[in-house]
């Protein structure tokens, strides 16, 4: 089955920023917002990355309703007019930030192929999702807030790209089931369980640190969490865990 690769450009908060976000900016010839003719592409890329990073922080702190594009522009160190040159509305910017967050997670899901070893593929997917929870807790919490609120700003993405990819990878898991490689489960709920087991360490980290008696969730805590999640999922599927 052919893999759809997520196109990458710019860098946002330490994560690759897709051209999907770049496409939300205004198009046309160079303008004052781009720093003059001849440097439009590079300046646009840098400005979009700065704005997305600042927007992620402000939306995480204040939510969609409480956030202002003026505050985002201030944090990004760009004039507010320039921000709206790239992102026409606050809604456009918010949607771009949310899609950037989840696209980085979907990259890991893309790597599950029909000819993959089920235990190795699922263990790797869990490990990458847990690493994302450790390195990108703030973006994960922002996504959680949006979904808890009904996900109204990302419904086209949820019902389009996400549903299609889960159906595609779920069909692979179903083939593993039909071939007797793993236990008979609902593939969609398998992915839901993996998302819940991994993202909870970002979204509810304060709960974990309090119970574990730690100031932060360190490498040891995430290693233990990865091992536990991997064993629970793989053994539940009748597979041997590599951890």
TrEMBL record:
GO terms for biological process: negative regulation of DNA-templated transcription. The keyword DNA-binding applies. Residues 45-105 form the HTH tetR-type domain. It comes from the Bacteria. Pfam families: TetR_C_3 (PF08362), TetR_N (PF00440). InterPro entries: Homeodomain-like_sf (IPR009057), HTH-type_TetR-like_transc_reg (IPR050109), HTH_TetR (IPR001647), Tet_transcr_reg_TetR-rel_C_sf (IPR036271), Tscrpt_reg_YcdC_C (IPR013573). Keywords: DNA-binding. Residues 68-87 bind DNA. Residues 1-38 are annotated as: Disordered. SUPFAM superfamilies: Homeodomain-like (SSF46689), Tetracyclin repressor-like, C-terminal domain (SSF48498). One of its GO terms (molecular function) is DNA binding. PANTHER family: HTH-TYPE TRANSCRIPTIONAL REPRESSOR SCO4008, TRANSCRIPTIONAL REPRESSOR. This is TetR family transcriptional regulator.
